[in-house]
Design brief:
The strands form 3 sheets. The chain has an 8-stranded mixed beta sheet with strand order 3-4-5-2-6-7-1-8. Strands 9-17-12-11-10-15-16 form a 7-stranded mixed beta sheet. The protein has 480 residues and is α/β, with parallel strands linked by helices. It has 17 helices and 17 strands. The longest helix has 18 residues, at 421-438. Helix 4 (66-80) crosses helix 5 and helix 9 crosses helix 10 (245-252). The chain is 38% helix and 19% strand. The model is unreliable at 6-10, 290-294, 413-426, 465-473 and 475-480 (pLDDT under 50). A hairpin with a 4-residue loop joins strand 4 (121-124) and strand 5.
Length: 480
């Protein structure tokens, strides 16, 4: 009986496909051996030898071939043992079906006898199976020897939604974790990190039996890129500067940060000199509500050196209250922000006006254009960028530039006797401007209007000569 039990516990090998890392380029000669995923390959090989021994969560930097790896891991498992039953899960059934269809094609290329025409569920001649499902899909009545969860969260919006995120976690425990095979079941959860409480984050902290945690960051602690033949250090640093610290830390380094922490480091102070070639923008932020402390109207002037890419903050102004003057009995009783904005436009001729605005705010933007045009006696255009995501996410690219010292502020002088009004005004705006940045957390209610205005100017000046945050995030959203 002991010998029979030992035989049953040992995997039956129909055909030895060799090490997984070597199997991938052999099956797909156009691919390079993914040595940067050697640890993940070791995990799959251990799961092949010792069924039921793996319960691991792997975070892998985006665009580093994890899903392509999984495509090949499935037929590799079935070449070892065509009776194995593999469940592949992702954020939606449609996406999962596409991936298991690729696995099916690779299995046929490898010479595995595949049965069934469906691409989301197919079997082998010996009774093995590959099945696709979305998180929360129907899995009743079946057990699996190998469960691979790949990208359970569709995007940041869903990962940061507590309701959607907790739905994914509940599906993992209630629907997936219970679908075990009597022989034993391996579990691999593989995804880029989005949130401290995403699936990998929760599983690796679960008590009393947490998943083992493994992380493959884009740049390791010694400053080396994960896969330099895919992305070298210079390319990764450029991405880091574009995406900002919050996005970079999660998607590329596997260390998501909780919201509410400081985003901006101490400023870079410099003695500014006028560059030979430059563009200037005035970013505008209009108070949306007077019911919170964030009720300033703000304008920030940024000048970009077209030769170096450095940006100088020339001025920042803000004012509470109305945008236009309030007139009572033919007399102005309250000067509005518009008057302050006109003064800034006069002092920075040629500057382009820009702001972020939602579709419902376009009427107000057009009214502001008309008012400015009437006062200045020439046509004024405000360049509008559509709002995508919340202000914390919009601030990422600007924060990356600030933290790297590419946004500079004129060096402050002491408030000594003998300063004229202009010098005192300059010191005043600098203190308030810097203070708002170092205190910025993106939490509703914090003062952040100057940050919002600066983000608009920064993104407008950059979008014609670089990758905007929206473009970068859209590119990430298309990659799995």
């Amino acid at each position: 009986m002991r010998k029979i039990r030992e035989q049953r516990s040992m995997p039956r090998v129909w055909r030895d496909p060799g090490p997984l890392l070597e199997y991938i380029p052999r099956l797909s000669p156009h691919l390079r051996r993914p040595d940067h995923l050697a640890g993940l390959a070791d995990s799959f090989e251990r799961g092949m030898r010792e069924l039921g021994s793996v319960r691991e969560a792997w975070s892998v930097a985006v665009r580093h071939g994890k899903t392509t790896f999984v495509h090949h891991a499935a037929p590799w498992i079935l070449e070892h043992d065509p009776t194995r039953k593999i469940l592949y899960l992702s954020y939606a059934h449609g996406f999962a079906k596409k991936q298991t269809g690729i696995m099916r094609d690779l299995a046929q290329r490898a010479g595995i006898m595949v049965r069934g025409r469906r691409r989301d569920e197919w079997t082998t001649k010996q009774g093995g199976m590959v099945k696709a499902a979305g998180m929360g899909g129907q899995l009743t009545g079946e057990g699996f020897t190998d469960v691979i969860v790949d990208d359970p969260h569709k995007n940041r919006a869903e990962a940061e939604s507590r309701v959607i995120r907790e739905g994914v976690i509940e599906a993992m425990y209630n629907d997936v974790y219970t679908r075990r095979d009597p022989r034993g079941t391996n579990f691999w959860v593989i995804h880029a990190r989005w949130h401290v409480n995403d699936l990998a984050g929760v599983l690796t902290r679960a008590e009393p039996h947490p998943f083992a945690r493994y992380n493959l960051p884009a740049i390791d602690a010694d400053g080396r890129p994960l896969a330099p033949w895919l992305f070298d250090l210079e390319q990764l640093e450029e991405l880091r500067d574009t995406l900002g610290p919050y996005v970079w830390a999660s998607l590329y380094q596997g260390e998501p940060r909780p919201r509410g922490g400081a985003l901006f480091v101490e400023p870079t102070l410099a003695k500014l000199a006028e560059p030979t070639s430059y563009r200037t923008a005035i970013g505008i932020d209009i108070a949306r509500s007077s019911s919170t402390r964030s009720d300033h109207n703000a304008a920030v002037v940024l000048r970009k050196d077209l030769d170096t890419g450095l940006m100088d903050v020339l001025e920042a102004v803000r004012a509470r209250g109305t945008v236009t003057d309030r007139v009572r009995g033919g007399e102005t009783v309250d000067e509005g922000f518009l008057r302050l904005l006109v003064r800034v436009i006069h002092e920075h001729p040629g500057a382009e006006l820009c702001m972020y605005a939602a579709e419902v705010e376009m009427g107000f933007v057009q009214l502001l254009e008309r008012e400015l045009s009437d006062i200045l006696e020439h046509t004024v255009t405000i360049h509008v960028m559509p709002i995508a995501g919340d202000k914390y996410m919009r601030a990422q690219a600007y924060a990356a530039s600030w933290n790297k010292g590419r946004v500079r502020i004129p060096g402050r002088t002491s408030l000594a006797d003998g300063q004229d009004d202009e010098e005192r005004h300059r010191d005043g705006w600098q203190n308030a401007f810097i203070g708002e940045h170092v205190d910025f957390t993106g939490v509703k209610g914090d003062e952040d209007d100057q940050v919002d205005a600066a983000v608009a100017a920064h993104d407008w000046l950059n979008q014609e000569q670089g990758t905007s945050l929206a473009e970068a995030m859209a590119a990430i959203g298309r990659v799995r």
